[in-house]
Amino acid sequence: MIDAARPAADKGMPVDSPDAEAVDARDPGGARSSRFVAGVLLLVLAGMWVAGWLSGTSAEDMLSLTAWGVMLGGIIALGGIGLTLCYGVLKFPNFAHGEFLTLGAYVTYGMVLVLPQSDPIWRFSFGWELLAGLLVAAAVTAVVAIVIDRLLYRPLRRHQSPLVLLAMASLGMEFLLRGIVYLVWGSDFHFYYSGRSNPALYLPFGLRLQADQLFVFALALVLVALLYWMLTRTRIGKAMRATADNPDLAQVRGIDTEQVVAWTWTIGAGLAAVGGVMYGLASQMRPDMGFVLLLPLFAGVIMGGIGSAWGALVGSIIIGVAMQLTSAFLNPAYGPAVAFVLMVLVLLMRPQGLFAQR
Amino acid sequence: MPLLRVDAVTAGYGDTEILRAVSIRVEADEVVAIIGPNGAGKSTLMKTIFGLLHPRQGAIAFDGHDITHQAPHRIVRLGMCYVPQVANVFTSLTVEENLEMGAFPMGKVDLSANKDRVYAMFPKLRQRRRQLAGKMSGGERQMVAMGSALMMNPRLLLLDEPTAALSPKLVEEIFERIARINDSGVGILMVEQNARQSLGMAHRGYVLANGENRHEGTGRDLLEDPNVGRLYLGG
Question: Does domain A5-11+44-349 correspond to CATH entry 3.40.50?
Answer without folding.
Answer: no
